[in-house]
Specification:
Helix content is 33%, strand content 25%. The strands form 2 sheets. The chain has a 9-stranded mixed beta sheet. Strands 3-2-1-4-5-6 form a 6-stranded parallel beta sheet, sandwiched between helices.
Length: 334
């Protein structure tokens, strides 16, 4: 499978390029990046891949195009791949709006082209563990999920820009994962309430996010994302009628990839982290499941769609409802 990669920032360099290169029978043949430093980095890290422009990439004979460019360009590049009849992976968030995402899904279906979205955190160690223990909690009533960081200064990146076309801010960035995971676990959402703030001096986009979802099955999901949390709460906390599960910390695969480790190495995805399962003081330490980002491209190479893009459309509808809720200070029904 001949693969072309658009973008060599954090998404392209840390996630997509190493995972593609680690997947059997996948060949990373071309990389697009205009930044001179990143071009040099791409040549050094993937010497067999040509460093090309977007137009040159779309002129190549490819089996798969991966869109890992800034959010504002996701739709444009995905449409070009679909028009060529080439399978396409789009990094999250799928598109700046749910309407544009729906257009992409319809275009891919009409063209008979495989389209999927890189929701890699479905293969986080802690999320896989939550899926494993849900059946031990009885009737789940509340789900809490956090991505909290300590980044007190605004950094020079398009994600910090206020233009709506950039789809910047934490709700689009980390919220795309938080909402997707909640939908995966507990299904469709009935109502959305959100509080979005800009806490850091000069911030143009949300950097303090709280979203409350009421699922159609009655489960309530409380989701947090924060760029200036000096102390972090539990990554996940799930409360059920017969017990609870809680786990701290973050999946280590991103840091491992950034450090040059690969899924083909010994012990990939295994962590020493444990979660706590039980009732009050009667809890058991549960080892987290191994993380498995490599499964995304392995599924794709096997001809399967690892992430249904329709689910990404649903997540964008929830995100849009959250923006409306925060702006109008009300609960939004879907």
């Amino acid at each position: 499978m001949r693969v072309g990669l658009l973008g060599y920032g954090i998404a392209g360099r840390v996630f997509h390029a190493p995972l593609i290169a680690s997947t059997a029978a996948m060949d990373l043949v071309a990389i697009v990046t205009a930044n001179p430093e990143r071009r040099a980095q791409a040549r050094a890290e993937h010497p067999d891949a040509a460093i090309v422009t977007a137009d040159e990439l779309f002129a190549l004979d490819l089996d798969l195009v991966v869109v890992a460019t800034p959010n504002r360009t996701h739709v444009e590049h995905a449409k070009r791949a679909i028009a060529k009849g080439v399978a396409v992976v789009v990094d999250k968030p799928f598109a700046p709006t749910s309407a544009e995402a729906e257009e992409l899904v319809a275009a891919a279906e009409a063209a008979g082209v495989l389209l999927t979205v890189f929701q890699n955190r479905r293969w986080d160690s802690d999320f896989l563990t939550v899926r494993e223990v849900l059946g031990k909690l009885g009737e789940v009533r509340r789900f809490e999920s956090r991505f909290e960081r300590w980044i007190p200064e605004i950094w020079d990146n398009w994600r910090e820009l206020g233009d709506p076309r950039e789809a910047g801010g934490l709700l689009y960035d980390l919220g795309a994962h938080l909402v997707d995971q909640a939908l995966q676990l507990f299904g469709p959402v009935r109502t959305v309430y959100a509080e979005l703030d800009r806490r850091r001096p000069g911030a143009q986009v949300d950097d303090d996010v709280f979203v409350a979802l009421t699922h159609a099955n009655g489960v309530r999901s409380h989701l947090w994302a924060n760029a200036h949390a000096a102390n972090h709460g539990p990554r996940f906390r799930v409360l059920g009628s017969e017990g609870a599960f809680e786990v701290d910390g973050l999946d280590g695969q991103e840091d491992a990839l950034a450090a040059g480790h690969r899924p083909t190495g010994y012990g990939w995805g295994h962590e020493d982290r444990t979660g706590r399962l039980g009732v009050l003081g009667d809890t058991t330490e549960i080892a987290v499941e191994p993380g498995a980002y490599q499964n995304f491209y392995a599924e794709l190479r096997a001809g399967r769609v690892p992430v249904d893009p329709a689910g990404a459309v649903d997540a964008l509808r929830v995100i849009e409802a959250a923006f409306t809720s925060a702006r109008e200070n009300r609960v939004v029904e879907l």
